[in-house]
Amino acid sequence: MATKRIGKQTVKLQNPPNIIATACIVGPKEGEGPLRLYFDEIIDDELFGEKTWEKAESKLMRETFAKVLKKANKTAEDIDYIIAGDLLNQCLAANFGLRESEVPFLGVYGACSTMAESMSIGSMLVDGNFADNVVCLTSSHFCSAEKQFRFPLELGTQRPPTAQWTVTGSGGVVISNKGNGPYITHITTGKIVDMGIKDVNNMGAAMAPAAMDTIVSHFMDTGFTPEDYDLIVTGDLGAVGKEICDELTREQGYNISKVYNDCGLMIYDRQKQDTHAGGSGCGCSATVFAGFIYKKLMERVINKVLFIATGALLSTTSSQQGESIPCIAHAVSISNTIS
Amino acid sequence: MATKRIGKQTVKLQNPPNIIATACIVGPKEGEGPLRLYFDEIIDDELFGEKTWEKAESKLMRETFAKVLKKANKTAEDIDYIIAGDLLNQCLAANFGLRESEVPFLGVYGACSTMAESMSIGSMLVDGNFADNVVCLTSSHFCSAEKQFRFPLELGTQRPPTAQWTVTGSGGVVISNKGNGPYITHITTGKIVDMGIKDVNNMGAAMAPAAMDTIVSHFMDTGFTPEDYDLIVTGDLGAVGKEICDELTREQGYNISKVYNDCGLMIYDRQKQDTHAGGSGCGCSATVFAGFIYKKLMERVINKVLFIATGALLSTTSSQQGESIPCIAHAVSISNTIS
Question: Looking at the structure, do residues A265 and A153 belong to the same domain, yes or no?
Fold first, then answer.
């Protein structure tokens, strides 16, 4: 059989898999934001009835998995693979949240690019006849992320305007070989890009070149143009990163401004909610996709989306050792029709 | 096209991909062990010319990538995906070690099951015509792992007899759609199994039920028996875990004893090298596979191997919060002939 690769980084799926259901659960702050009506569930407090933030994040993942199965009218028995990961050390949220699932499990780590990475692998496994149904999941939690990556919350550390707010939330999708769309038609897998930025309070700027690299590669590999899309949406570049990405992409000959948005800007009202440059975390793009974008696709308000989740692949150890921030972005092209 | 799934957890590859090259670099202690003649390179000191253990581990990954490309007579341009991960928080070794590779990158986290997980995904991407050539890589480092998971080395903490010794080393393979074998014919993807064990100094015992679960699923799904294999090899159960796995598997009706070994037992002379229950870490199964097992396949000393890498999906946070240890094992069936 002929290769499904087009260009250097892109795969054109032969039998584009369907996204048959999505689900998402978010925290109280996300539940006060402009997308509140699109989320399946808004939890009352960050602990979600658990004793620790990490256990709360695991529970977010577990409940989102249960919810997406129910919405897809499937049981765990029907699922061939779970593909999941998160930001916590050793992917604690996914590994503990999904340990009772009884489903073959592939753990991934792509920082905040995880949703697009898992959907990329998932759609290849379905298209390649290795699976009938795959669940892709991720999560993040403001408190567990602050505790792990930054400062104790109790310290009340002031944040610079370029800082972003980690989304508390989990989002998941079921990708299936049967259905009526929306279809995953192409995936463009990112390379690691490190432009030497070291400011951990400006991850949007660090990630923007990786996002641009993947977006431009997608256009070059597929022959698509920005006009082919109703929405081009990055994961969590926030206000600073989005502007840089927009400009860098334009410098490469592709003007995406008219259809370009960023999940980190969509999830909060930045002025009223004091979230500085916007949202971030694996759960940001996951819940905005599962909650808002998927519903707009189903309503046919939009028909073709390029979803680019973006990840900063740093750790506290690497930053303490003076390292810059390697970044990555993966793109998934989703359409209501198969071209 | 028909599904490639057989049974609940196994995929039979339609055009079994080839492992066209392997490479591995190990630390000084591993270089004094019984497999020393099989490793491509033995480094003189754990720092490998770097200032920190984490940078040394990243360098192990980078140099192993360069070496495996060279041995496969390929350049980075020929590689469609790198699939890699490691034990460090946020997969530091892979993300920093491979950031200059310029190859589409899929990060995975499966703790010490990473080598089999990455080979599973890699072989599906090749078999499914999504890639011509994929590199799968992982690493671990005794010092960076001790520092992150256990105690400062300077403390000289005494270790119980059930404890294992994290291998310093990196192993990688090139999986290709062209070649003359050895072939990856089947993969069996594990589920997360948590039997409630909490002793972080006895990970072999924690992982054994997951290994058994995947081995038994493999036999049930494929119809193979232990007699079909020249070698059934788990990743890093060590002395305690190997015995448990052997017994649990026998209880399920499969006697693997005659052909069963464990990479953690193969890599060190446990008596002379004071490594207690044996080796562990992502690098354990990766270097034993890349160094020893692959060469024995190429020499036709053995012709059919079931390689089961095993992972303990804990973190220091989860253990501090009183959690048990969820585990996973992924199996890759490799043969010199296509059945």
Answer: no
Question: Could you tell me the two tokens for A272?
Answer: 């009223």
CA distance B89 to chain A (A): 5
Q: CB–CB of A109 and B90 under 8 A?
A: yes
Beta bridge partners of A24: A171
Give the DSSP H or E segment for B247.
Answer: helix B238-251
CB contact under 8 A, A90 and B87: yes
User: Are residues A231 and A330 located together in one domain of the fold?
Assistant: yes
- Last residue of some domain: A176, A211, A231? A176
Interchain CB distance below 8 Å, A11 and B130: yes
Whether A5 sits inside 8 A of B315 (CB atoms) is: no
CB contact under 8 A, B96 and A318: yes
For A38, A110, A163, the CA distances from B316, given in Å and listed in that order, are 36, 21, 27
Contacting residues of A for B95, CB less than 8 Å apart: 192, 313, 326
The shortest CB-CB distance from B111 to any of A81, A90, A194 is to A90
Kindly state the tokens that stand for B68.
């495996």
Which CATH number does the domain housing residue B299 bear? 3.40.47.40
ipTM of this model? Answer: 0.98
Distance of CA A238 to the CA centre of its chain: 13
Structure tokens belonging to residue A176? 């299936």
Beta-strand runs (E) in A219-303: 231-234, 260-262, 279-280
What single DSSP character describes residue A49? T
Q: How far apart are CA B62 and CA B12, in angstroms?
A: 32
User: How far is B18 from B15, CA to CA, in rounded Å?
Assistant: 9
Residue of A79, A86, A89 to mutate for B, most B C-beta atoms under 10 A: A89
When divided into structural domains, chain A yields a total of: 2
Of A176, A197, A225, the residue that ends a domain is: A176
3-state SS class at B255: coil
d(CA B92, CA B98): 10
Place of tokens 């059919």: B304
Measure CB to CB from residue B52 to each of A2, A191, A321 and give the nearest one.
Answer: A321
Rg (CA), chain B: 18
The one-digit pLDDT tens for each residue of chain A (339 residues) are 688 999 999 999 999 999 999 999 999 999 999 999 999 999 999 999 999 999 999 999 999 999 999 999 999 999 999 999 999 999 999 999 999 999 999 999 999 999 999 999 999 999 999 999 999 999 999 999 999 998 888 888 888 989 999 999 999 999 999 999 999 999 999 999 999 999 988 999 999 999 999 999 999 999 999 999 999 999 999 999 999 999 999 999 999 999 999 999 999 999 999 999 999 999 999 999 999 999 999 999 999 999 999 999 999 999 999 999 999 999 999 999 996
Residues A104 and A166 in one domain: yes
Provide the residue type at A325 as one letter: I
